[in-house]
Amino acid sequence: MNDTQWLVESTALVKRYGRVEALRGVDLRLGAGQIVGLVGPNGSGKSTFLKVVAGLLHPDGGSVKVRGRSPGLETKRWVAFQPEIDHLYRWMTVQQAMELQASVVGDWDARRAAELLEFLNLHQQRRTPVRNLSRGMRARLKLAMTLSRNAPIVLLDEPLSGIDPPSRGRIIRALIGQFRTDEQVVVLATHEVAETESTFDRVVFLERGTVKIDEDAQELRERYGKSIQAIMEEVYA
């Protein structure tokens, strides 16, 4: 794949919060056709990397390119970002939250949105205010809002956070079912590796803001002879 084909490319990326370097020279190239597991303990730089790609934070060193351009207003139309924090307006109903998202993005797929609401068991909650939803339902709503876009770059920050175990399999199936292999990259930042690693085509381990491992997921399992979860436990022991 040549340089013009990378959807996301970071080179010697640095991001600081005061004196703390959250990212320290991160080099990553992400192309279409992969679900990438971005894993590591809290404080490893996962969320910061996603926010820089999404254009919510500016690099303090190095560079990031999104389809060959620096993150900004123009690149936001190519990036669907689901933050870990609860960013929903609590006074809105589920339907109003979906309609607001549809009105501010240019790639909304109404048919997919309806299918996701039903698959994620939110279709009967359309008139329910967000403030009356459980934490797990709010997490499912955020995922539906993100996956209803046709963006080539999908960034999910801890999408299973707060979701009850019985619902997690449904979330993962929704993610796989909506993935468009020929035109899209999904970056899934998580420490819930045991439940999500079956989706990974590639896995990137971050540690203190640096890339520790970047490898094909199956090749990594074969090299270590164990699961990604077990490898993670060994690497970060």
UniProtKB/TrEMBL annotation:
PROSITE patterns: ABC_TRANSPORTER_2
Residues annotated as domain ABC transporter: 8-233
CDD domains: ABC_DR_subfamily_A
Domain of life the protein comes from: Bacteria
SUPFAM superfamilies: P-loop containing nucleoside triphosphate hydrolases
Keyword ATP-binding listed: yes
InterPro entries the UniProt entry points to: AAA+_ATPase, ABC_transporter-like_ATP-bd, ABC_Transporter_VariousFunc, P-loop_NTPase
Protein name from the UniProt record: ABC transporter ATP-binding protein
Source species of the chain: Carboxydichorda subterranea
